[in-house]
Design a protein that fits this description.
homodimer, alpha/beta, Peroxisomal Thiolase, Chain A, domain 1, 2 domains, nine-stranded mixed β-sheet
Chain lengths: 386, 386
């Protein structure tokens, strides 16, 4: 298995792009990534996307994107693991390049959500839940997370205000990210008074949807030198996926994200690292409860103790466990199928020292964890700067 | 890159399975494949599917299927390249096993179409066309193929009746396949008098939709001996994908399936074979015009001469170019995202001498070509019996 390097990244702002289609957004990010890598084309495209079939009524969008991004007859596919589609796409690209089959691959995550007609996005998001046993009962995706958060607060004795630091940190970091959707700083008072969405989750506990695309170019390490113009070499040190049941009621313990834990443990084993080695962790803070559960599943906090890291001021860019350094899902925005690749793009910027105001000093090891379906399909990547 | 073998297959009948969900069908085929391989579990699941998000309102079905099929926390993803999703899934599984990352992979194709509410399947099928430039104009998927067929007949001087042998052969073969949807033999008169769907395509030129799932278990060749209980070793000798524009009007020549040609040429090069070496060819006869175009793109006929093979009686199981040996899409049925894996299952049965009445004598080399979006996303596999 060949070692694989990332040699260029690109992204569009997360926003309401009324004038751009799914295909426009994806090709914009792909061309930016190829440009960053100093390349003009690629052998294959792996696109992560969740809603093209429903919102854009487009199956096989990979072929369409490859055409628009001028990739010629390159192979192209779309992969869907709900909100972890972006990271799943990277995993597939990695396999293809590592196996020796593909030379230069572009991996993209893309989602187009905001111009869907009323209710369509809520219905599409609910498709990340178990269609027969959760969504069919009228449970929306945020309602499922609200059930989780309520249970977590009751079992572990946390108050709603204890989750505020996750959102405050994300917004503070997004201020400096020109690609982020929400760049307004928020404080504890705003978090406590925000409009309720699904009790106990309020508007400042949830990530905003949006349109956007993010992409990276990957090649075998031995070819990376040919393309790179300097700066540290960033390699993919680990990639691990795991699944759990989609429906919460099927899980052994609803408050432990078993697939997230398994995926993180496999990734640490592959890279020969432990949580203490990670300089920056891009976690899946789709809801503030998910930030807490992800920190626990990835080994940064004991079960039930995730919020403690925020309350102890340990999650900022210059703290012990920097998370959501470019705004995270909470403030950069969560264009669902694209999010996993936004995480990778942001890690790459961190590891190459291009992260600006929220640069984590001397970051060498970055980890991203992308979660689909409230913990059903989880992918963890570890990147290493040489 | 490790060589990869198929060690077991499973399928459900293609039918209107009113009492079974997408997940039920997929897990039934997966358990049958694992059973055929003498295994109880796998490390990863690659599921090809087109319509779960629309018809079943289920994103990330991979996780759900893995749970139901008792695959534990195995990695699992869903890939969508429209009607070629099945073969795309095999390609991803192949990459993962070939790279050394995954030991035992299950690849499945699954589709659940018949219990969709009125018009939903036609709309979902239209998503295999270009949503903005074809489907938005009201062109259905069959209408796009009708435009192709009309143009082909005009340019190359064929009559509608010249396509009859494709459908007659498919139905004749399906008679002996217990998993086929349409097992009634048909003749030229029936073909000429069938109800019109989209002129010149009539009901006996089109493949029926349906519900179904097909699956295969793949492992590195060096581990195949451990599991197999005899019979020839079947390896994946080639796997190649290519893309073309989705919209017909974007193509250089609408009557040449450029991606199908490129995909076949790459596959022949990988396997070191030519069309003359292929003993059985499972082609993508979603419409009779597609049978003709596929035969040409794969090098079995000159451009414009595909129907000649049928008229010259060269496509039966004991003829020069055996196609649709178990009924093909036309008569076995075309549960879109599952079709690519039905093709692989049928090739495997042929190469292991388990194809029954329509066994191609001494078949050693089998080729399957799976086409998504009227030639947009094409995947060709060549299997070899050792």
């Amino acid at each position: 298995m060949r070692e694989v390097a990332i040699i260029g990244v690109g992204q569009t702002p997360v926003a309401e792009h009324w004038d751009k289609s799914l295909v426009d957004l994806a090709s914009e990010a792909i061309r930016a990534a190829l440009n960053d890598a100093g390349l003009d084309r690629a052998d294959a495209l792996y696109a992560g996307n969740m809603m093209s079939g429903t919102v854009s009524r487009q199956s096989t969008p990979g072929a369409l994107i490859a055409g628009r991004a001028r990739l010629g007859v390159a192979e192209s596919i779309k992969v869907d693991t709900a909100c972890s589609s972006g990271a799943s796409a990277l995993r597939l690209g990695l396999s293809a390049v590592a196996s020796g089959e593909i030379g230069v691959a572009v991996v993209a995550g893309v989602e187009k959500m905001t111009d869907a007609v009323g209710g369509e996005v809520t219905a599409a998001l609910a498709s990340a839940a178990d269609a027969d046993f959760e969504a069919a009962m009228g449970t929306s995706f945020v309602a499922i997370n609200a059930l989780l958060m309520r249970r977590y607060m009751e079992v572990h004795g946390w108050k709603h205000a204890d989750f505020a630091p996750f959102s405050i940190n994300a917004h503070a970091n997004a201020r400096h990210n020109p690609y982020a959707r929400l760049r307004n700083p928020i404080d504890e008072k705003q978090h406590s008074r925000a409009r309720m969405v699904a009790d106990p989750i309020n508007l400042l506990d949830v990530s905003p949807t949006g349109d956007g695309a993010a992409a990276a170019v990957i090649v075998p390490v031995e070819r990376a030198g040919k393309y790179r113009s300097g700066g540290p070499l960033v390699t993919i040190a680990a990639s691990a996926a795991a699944t759990d049941s989609i429906a919460l009621h099927d899980r052994y313990d609803t408050l432990e994200l078993a697939a997230a834990r398994q995926s993180a443990e496999r990734a640490y084993a592959q890279a020969g690292l432990s949580p203490a080695d990670v300089d920056v962790f891009e976690l899946h803070d789709a809801f503030s409860i998910m930030a807490a559960l992800s920190l626990e599943a990835a080994g940064f906090a004991e079960p039930g103790q995730g919020p403690r890291l925020g309350l102890d001021d340990q999650i900022g860019p210059r703290s012990k466990v920097p998370i959501a350094t470019m705004g995270g899902l909470k403030a950069r925005g969560h264009p669902v199928g694209a999010t996993g690749m936004y995480q990778i793009v942001e890690l790459y910027l961190q590891l190459t020292g291009r992260a600006g105001e929220t640069q984590v000093p001397g970051a060498k090891i970055g980890m991203a964890q992308n979660i689909g379906g409230s913990g059903a399909s989880v992918v963890t990547h570890i990147l290493r700067a040489g």
